[in-house]
Write a structure and sequence with these properties.
Number of strands: 0
Shape: rod-shaped
Strand content: under 5%
Distance between the termini: 13 Å
Structural class: mainly alpha
Largest sheet: none
Number of helices: 2
Helix content: over 70%
Radius of gyration: 17 Å
């Protein structure tokens, strides 16, 4: 049981790291889309908006997974 708890903590830490990285990448893609679409009109802005939305949603998904693991760890603790 201790080994399982340790693995869950490591998995939660990895999910948090992935979430942070994906949110940062998503924000960079969003700013790139805003720059190429509104400041200097270009045709690739829509693709960047889609990619930023996809990475941000993936980051939120990892955040939800991390939250589920946290709840599972708290339930095992009790």
């Amino acid at each position: 049981m201790n080994k399982n708890k340790k693995q869950l903590k490591l998995k939660q830490k990895d999910c948090r790291r992935f979430m942070a990285v994906l949110l940062v990448i998503g924000s960079y893609l969003y700013f790139g889309a805003v720059t190429t679409t509104y400041i200097q009109p270009a045709s690739g802005g829509n693709l960047l908006f889609f990619l930023s939305l996809l990475t941000i949603l993936s980051g939120i998904g990892y955040g939800c997974t991390s939250l589920k693991i946290k709840i599972q760890l708290e339930n095992e603790h009790n």
